[in-house]
């Protein structure tokens, strides 16, 4: 059977924010070898053109993963999609707050990521959704998500394991955010609105919350 790559994600659309643009400029100065996620443009180069930075880095659609990206058999697609739709047919709208700068490294240590993590508002709801996806994965013999899920969106990446650089950078970014916002309310908030399943280049709607 032909294998395809499948990923499950909560899609979180939001507009570019001036403050986030300033923060990413700061990140590029702290870690010069960062690249924009999904675009592979050097962050330092994007920072030379504010309009391009907002369009390429912040104009994209971010997502929170609810399951691992895995290889599946073509004949499993319909079953996976159908079970997920059934699982998520009664979802309610809730707020997510990305309130903590963090760094992550992929399983084979080939890439490191600068990310915004959900640690409070929305965490219980996302954790429950991850558990629901795990149940569907389990029935199809697929690997479940990480034991202690840490929902996040990734904004930039670097080659290899550069944890030490990114750990220090996140501390500096938080100090910088506080210095440019007297209220210290720098969090990114958005509503949960839908879940999609991505199979290769095809996208399946799993659930969508109406207005």
Automatic annotation (TrEMBL):
Coiled-coil features, chain-numbered ranges: 159-186
A GO molecular-function descriptor: nuclease activity
InterPro entries recorded: Usb1
GO BP: U6 snRNA 3'-end processing
UniProt entry keywords in alphabetical sequence: Coiled coil, Hydrolase, Lyase, Nuclease, Nucleus
Keyword Transmembrane helix: no
A matching Pfam family: HVSL
Keyword DNA damage set for record: no
PANTHER family per record: U6 SNRNA PHOSPHODIESTERASE 1
Protein's name in the database: U6 snRNA phosphodiesterase 1
Organism: Triticum aestivum (Wheat)
